[in-house]
Structure formats: structure tokens, C-alpha cells
Amino acid sequence: MEATFEKMFTVYGGQFGSEGKGQIVRYITGELVNKGRVYAYRIGGPNAGHTFYIGEDKIVTCQIPGPMFLAPSVVGIIGPEGVISPGMLARELQDLVQHRQRTNGGRGFQTLLIDQSAAIITDEQLAREASLVKNIGSTGKGVGAATADKVMRTGKTAKDYDFKTITDKYDLFIDIKIVDTIGWVQKQKNKGPAYAIVEGTQGAGLSLHTSGYYPHCTSRECTPQGIWAGCGLHPGMAKESESVMVIRTYPIRVAGPSGPMTNELTWEEVSRRVGREVKEITTVTKNTRRVSEIDIPELERTIAYTRPDAIALTFLDYVNSDIYKKDPRGNTLSQMYVSSIEQLLDTPVKYVGTGEGYVYQWRV
């Protein structure tokens, strides 16, 4: 059977989320936009935010695929396992339109596909999640409740929801389609070279079934296998496929009773090691994150069942503050640290990040 994509990139978190997936996705997409059509997939919902930078613009998305901000030619896809907060979706579409007006005068019509099976969050589902915030440090955004209702066949999905107030407001810039995204993409496969960039949510250490941290986990699988199923994809649909596991030098978990962390640290200790004051706040809840040393045995376990082709190592500047927002490839300490990670995990490091928006290709 003819391949749908020339190449498919899957970017997923190897720890507990907030590994910097957004900036890696932004970098890879930037390499693709001049090669052909780009389909940018996103699953998950408003309980996970992706942050990246385009020039001076700081972009945060919880619903729409981040690559849509890079070029109007990028087709955004919220997959069948997506969970949608209509209010947040509308705000992010407004951010997208405003960004395009600042950068290219709003020129170019763009397409956002929302799978007809994506779940819709209701006010009642939001209310039901209040106990999860106290018990497991959940963001309480209604994602778990909406997913549970979908499993019980009682939830509302995109095909049941009237998106007219949203589509009418942005129809001069964005064509929003509620469709069977799997079938829609298949029909486009003879229209020239196409690439897929798949933006995973959270991290493998939060996976519902395989993390080993239940009940301190999220409401889905955050592994490549789970992400592909949630998008209606498989690597066999592409002539070439590459999965990139994003990890941090100092992993984090959300605040509160969010589950075990090996060798947990204070931000004061991390700041002392880094040589400058660092403290991170969660994208969605705005609470101070928990932080720890890198956990090699946990990463070895994750690699054993997710089998990434490459690693993206972010927050390398936390190991050596001299490379903050700089190219680290000629730095001896950086080379030593990256080599040690490659040897310990028996996986090549292809990308590194050294600060907000600063990503470099370590290996070709």
C-alpha cells in the first residue's frame, strides 16, 4: 500500500511531562515546512500545555497543535482521543490569528481538523474532578472525567457539539472541520509529498497503564504506542519514521501529592548547582513544580518499552550555565555530559536545548 507520509516524527516525553516537547516540535517542524505539506497532530487536552518561542513571541498551547503557529500551510489535527475545552480552544484560535496578524498580516488560509470522536468537556465534568486536585495533584481541567464518560458511552463528542460560534468568528483565517480525521488524511495522500509531526502529551512516567505510578498518573497512555492510537496513526503509514523521546537533565512533576520522585531536590539546591536562580512554574496550574535528579534506571525502563530512535535532551544549561541560550556543541563539559547520557541509555542524543527557544541538532 502506498505510504501516506514521506516521514513521520513522533515527539513524546520520557519523564513526567514538561520536558520541553514544544520547542523540539517547533524545531523539527521548521525543518519540514519547505519540503511539503505538514500535518501536525495533537492529542490530549487542556491539562497539559506546550510552550515554545517564535522570535520574540512566547506561544503556549493546550489544545491546538503548536506547529500551526509556524506557517499557514501547516494543517492542524486534533485526533480522535483529543479532549476539548471549547472556551480554551476559542482563546487559542484567537492567539493564533493575532500571531499571524503580527507576523504576516494574517495572510494565508489555514485548516484545523477536529476529529468527530474527540471528547468535549462539560461544566459537570469539571466539577467532578475537584477531588483529584487534592488527592493526586491533578490539574482538575475535566480531562479525566470527560475521558471516563467517553469510555462509558455517555460523554459528548465533537460531532455532537455546535462549533458555530467559534467557526464563524475565525472563518476568515481558519477553516475548522469536524471530520473523521483518519479518512480525511488518507484522501490527501496523492496530492504531493506530506510529512507528519506528532505532538505527544505529558510524559511516559504519567501513563495510565504502563508508568507503574497508578493512581498518580494521567488519564491516557503517553507512550508512542498510545499517541499513535489516539491519533489514528501507525509508523507503517510513512516511508520513514522517527520517534524522539524528550528528557530533561532535572525532571519535574507537578506540585502537590503528584506521586513518587527519586532523589527529589529543592529549587534552592538546583539553583546552587546551576549557578543562577532557577525555579519553574507549571504551564497550566501556575504552581511551583517539584524537581529531582535525573533517574537513569527509570529512563532505562521507559526506553525498553518505547524504543525511541533518538533522544532530545533539554535543560542542558542546568548542567552548565555557561551555555544558557547558547550553542553547546563546542563546549567540553556539554560533550562529556551528553556522551554519558548516550552511553548510559544506549540511545543517540539528536537534539539539545539550552534555554527558552534555543534548540540545536547534536547529531545529523
How many DSSP-defined strands? 17
Strand order of the largest sheet: 9-7-5-2-10-1-11-15-16-17
Number of alpha- plus pi-helical segments: 11
Annotated CATH homologous superfamily of the largest domain = Adenylosuccinate Synthetase, subunit A, domain 1
Strand content: 15-25%
> Which outline best applies?
globular
Mean pLDDT: 91
User: Per CATH, what is the topology of the largest domain?
Assistant: Adenylosuccinate Synthetase, Chain A, domain 1
CATH class of the largest domain: Alpha Beta
Gap between N and C termini: 30 Å
Would you kindly provide a written description of the structure presented here, covering whatever features stand out?
With 364 residues, the chain is of the alpha/beta class. The protein folds into two domains: 5-246, Adenylosuccinate Synthetase, Chain A, domain 1, CATH 3.40.440; 252-361, Alpha-Beta Complex (Adenylosuccinate Synthetase, Chain A, domain 3), CATH 3.90.170.10. Helix content is 29%, strand content 23%. It contains eleven helices and 17 strands. Strands 9-7-5-2-10-1-11-15-16-17 form a ten-stranded mixed β-sheet, with helices on both faces. The chain has a three-stranded antiparallel β-sheet with strand order 12-14-13.
